[in-house]
Design brief:
Number of domains: 4
Distance between the termini: 76 Å
CATH class of the largest domain: Alpha Beta
Largest sheet: 7 strands, mixed
Strand content: 15-25%
Number of helices: 16
Helix content: 40-55%
Shape: globular
CATH topology of the largest domain: Glutaredoxin
Structural class: alpha+beta
Number of strands: 17
Mean pLDDT: 85
């Protein structure tokens, strides 16, 4: 008897260090498979041609593909049908760093001082080499098309990023941001005045010829409706967001002044994005970001989104996030956690009951988080002996626990330091809707939330709030 495999089936097998594998895409598709204790797995499902995430990694898949993945210290190796595509995609993604100082979809400060024409020339060399590799690949026509599109938009993305940041001095920028964070967020006048001094961070600016290079190559022929590219390209998504931001900043509509920023954002998306998949996903992400950023002050955007969306799954997710945020408003019971500390011992939030608790959500790879560490140390010293405890929760991935532990010890980090069990997917982190860091949370002695998005250590408002709380509570901790 012969078993026929469905032409729509995709099979992924191999060996990997994980407990479970989830294959998913942005179109609400999901397929899961367990991983055996020895690391072996087999995942079979029916899926269309396109780009998917397998846990945290991007894969290109087509019906009929049988890809084998073996995870090793040096990374993933591919074999079987579909290996050529996925092997080349990883090489192309990593190769950009051979030509410009880029990593993780951003540029290092070194790029700020490279002459724009020299930077652009390096990108052209990268383009030529990447096109040659694509031409020599015995790959799917669909894959080759999307990767050529990706290549063009990677060029546009990094050209834009470099020309905007050309001449920015890192030290001046750090000072500017520190001073900006010290301004009361409610003092819009001072914030605006400070923002208008951002030009002080530049020590040189592009010439008119260099600006022309940017506009002629980067701004020309941007197609905002490439669905296949949007499904997997971080650079393309960021470029679309930048385009929308520019549209909002340059809006000269007669009724623009009467429209809120939220309404203008929705107007811009609806006006420029004709592809229904991209439009729905953009509106969803913008709304989710707005909710996480503004909390209870995002009601207007929340309501406007629900009026416009046709995606019932996204709408239900947004409602759930809003309900969850309302659940953890000031005075609500803080979600529980038990994470392991540097010594491997479990630490629970309940262990700190009876004290105010200031929580720092951070990671070793997060530069803004690291920037706050000296201020956090100073705050900790200032309130030593007071009824407040400081705890750092790292969202580094569990596989990077050794690097996290070394970072904590090398930098002499104070307070209680723990590692979240599933980085951003950890229960405590996801319950509070945390999608960006650093994030600071203040909890009272009864385990109730004082502020789920508290001021940073570098913000003078934090000391003012703690002083007030200590004064109300009598301040000193008598069990020392």
């Amino acid at each position: 008897m012969t078993c026929l495999v469905s032409v729509a089936q995709i099979t992924i097998s191999g060996h990997i260090d994980a407990k479970r594998l989830v294959l998913a895409n942005a179109g609400h598709f999901s397929c899961q498979a367990p991983v055996r204790p020895d690391g072996r797995f087999l995942l079979t499902c029916e899926a269309d041609t396109g780009y998917y995430t397998l846990n945290d990694s991007i894969l290109y898949l087509e019906p009929g593909m049988k890809v084998r993945i073996d995870a090793q210290d040096a990374g993933w190796t591919f074999s079987g049908k579909g290996a050529n595509e996925n092997r080349l995609m990883r090489r192309l993604n990593a190769m950009i760093g051979d030509f410009i100082p880029a990593a993780a979809d951003t540029l290092s400060d070194k790029a700020n001082m490279i002459q724009p024409d020299s930077f652009y020339h390096s990108l052209q060399i990268y383009r030529d080499k990447a096109l040659a590799m694509l031409a020599g690949c015995h790959c799917s026509p669909s894959f080759l098309k999307t990767q050529r599109d990706q290549l063009e938009y990677v060029i546009k993305y990094y050209t834009r990023l470099q020309i905007i940041n050309y001449g920015v001095d890192p030290e001046r920028k750090a000072v500017f941001l520190r001073e900006l964070r010290q301004i009361d967020p409610n003092d819009q006048s001072r914030l605006l005045q400070k923002s208008m001094t951002y030009g002080s961070v530049y020590i040189k600016r592009p010439t008119s010829k260099e600006w022309q290079l940017y506009y002629s190559d980067q701004m020309r022929d941007i197609d905002m409706n490439l669905r296949d590219l949007y499904a997997f390209s971080a650079e393309y998504k960021k470029l679309l967001n930048d385009e929308l931001t520019d549209m909002l900043n340059n809006s000269a509509s007669p009724n623009a002044a009467s429209r809120s920023q939220d309404e203008k954002t929705i107007d811009a998306v609806n006006a420029k994005i004709t592809d229904s998949f991209i439009r729905e996903d953009l509106l969803y992400r913008l709304t989710l970001s707005d909710l996480k950023r503004k909390g209870k002050n995002a009601a207007e955007y929340y309501s406007a989104y629900l009026e416009h969306t046709d995606d019932t799954i996204h709408a239900d997710n947004i409602r759930a996030v809003k309900e969850n945020m309302d659940r953890y408003s000031p005075g609500a019971e803080a979600p529980a956690f038990t994470f392991r500390g540097v010594d491997g011992a479990p630490v629970s939030l309940s262990d700190l009951r009876g004290h105010y608790v200031y929580i720092d959500i951070w990671a070793t790879w997060c530069e803004p988080c690291i920037h706050e560490l000296p201020y956090l140390l100073a705050v900790g010293k200032k309130y030593d002996g007071k009824n407040i405890r400081f705890i750092g929760i790292s969202v580094d991935k569990p596989k990077d626990s050794a690097s996290w532990r070394q970072f904590v010890m090398h930098n002499g980090m104070q307070g209680v330091q723990v590692l979240a069990d599933h980085d951003f997917s950890s229960g405590f982190i996801s319950s509070l809707g945390i999608i960006s860091i650093p994030r600071f949370i203040l909890i009272d002695p009864a385990g109730k939330i004082v502020d789920a998005d508290a001021a940073r250590p570098s913000d003078p408002q934090l000391s003012r709030l703690i002083d007030k709380l200590m004064s109300q509570a009598g301040g000193r901790y008598s069990d020392r």
